[in-house]
Amino acid sequence: SIGYSPRRGRLILPVYRDGELVKYQTRRIFDHDDKPKYVTYKSKDLAWYHPGKLEEGTTIIVEDILSGIRVSEQFNCVALLSSGISDNELLFIVKHFRKALIWLDNDNRHVKLSQVEIKNKLDNLLESDKIIHQPKEPKYHSDADIFRIVYEHSR
Question: Rounded to 10 degrees, what is the CA torsion of 44, 54, 137, 99?
Fold first, then answer.
């Protein structure tokens, strides 16, 4: 569950795998905080994953936990906690899913290039992989918008 650290003045976003804390992220919430928006503390190279309610063989790949929480209300979701994908994260996705939609934040050129790199890595490993190009991050969309966007890109 999401927490708050008064000492750090940041949200705490934990990542558990099989009941074990494998990493956590802190997120800036105050304007006076001069640290990066997200700071990730890794003990293992694993993505955040949450099973959704629809589309069993498909996952949506997002950049951050808050987008992951939002999308996983309806769909399987993997949050990379960055705009890149590690070999372990790639193996997890290939092992558990047949299809993937890549929906990163699209907020700069680096992220847009990363989406293409992720797609290229998945191209020969999954039945289908597509990039969702949206100007808003997944976490800022309504449930209805997420549902519509995912299904439009699933065809």
Answer: 70
